[in-house]
Design a protein that fits this description.
By secondary structure, this protein is mainly alpha-helical. The chain has seven helices and three strands. Helix 1 packs across helix 3 and helix 2 packs across helix 3. The longest helix has 37 residues. Belongs to the MND1 family. It holds the Pfam family LZ3wCH. GO terms for molecular function: double-stranded DNA binding.
């Protein structure tokens, strides 16, 4: 014998909602856990979960009175909720249809003039060749960038500034050496030797 298939969540929801409609009463969770298995075949362990999904979907109302939480539902409320959901879904469908129509129109406009033809294929081929040539020329131009007059002019300015800076430091070294000679009576060669100053040290021409 094949094993009996259990109820799906949607089947349990439908049956539990039917129980509310048939009884037209207020229930505690414990009461539903006792009644639902007998009258609707819903296991008591799953009643709480199924009930919560109905409450979340606004199909079952709930309220706390004192320390007890009661649940109830009426057909008119369920019908109103379903009608509201249906209206929202209908509005969403209409909005999606409008967007689809608008997108289709834009797509049609974008494709206008792009129909496949020998002329279009030839133009696209020529465009690709020109893009390739342009890229090659840019690469070639980059090789000669250092010969650019503006680049050379900037390099000349930087060279002059570097030369002036080097000579300033050379002047500072000579000034300090002169001070040491006067102050301590040291010879130039001794100062050069102790501070690692080469004999050819001089201003940059």
């Amino acid at each position: 014998m094949s094993k009996k298939r259990g109820l799906s969540l949607e089947e349990k929801r439908t049956r539990l909602l039917e129980l509310f409609f048939e009884k037209k009463e207020f229930f505690l969770l414990k009461e539903l856990e006792k009644i639902a298995p007998k009258e609707k075949g819903i296991t008591s362990m799953s009643v709480k979960e199924v009930l919560q999904t109905l409450v979340d979907d606004n199909l079952v109302d709930t309220d706390k009175i004192g320390t007890s939480i009661y649940f109830w539902a009426y057909p008119s409320k369920a019908m109103h909720t379903r009608q509201k959901n249906l209206q929202q879904l209908t509005e969403q469908i209409n909005e999606c249809e409008k967007k689809l129509a608008s997108t289709t129109k834009l797509l049609k406009q974008a494709n206008s003039g792009r129909e496949q033809s020998d002329d279009r294929a030839a133009i696209l081929q020529e465009l690709m060749q020109k893009k390739k040539l342009c890229k090659e020329q840019e690469e070639q131009l980059e090789k000669y960038r250092e010969c650019d007059p503006e680049v050379l002019q900037n390099m000349q300015k930087e060279t002059v500034m570097a030369k002036e800076g080097a000579n300033r430091w050379t002047d500072n070294v000579f000034t300090i050496k002169s001070w040491c000679v006067r102050k301590f009576g040291l010879e130039d060669k001794m100062i050069d030797k102790n501070f690692g100053i080469p004999e050819e040290f001089d201003y940059v021409e």
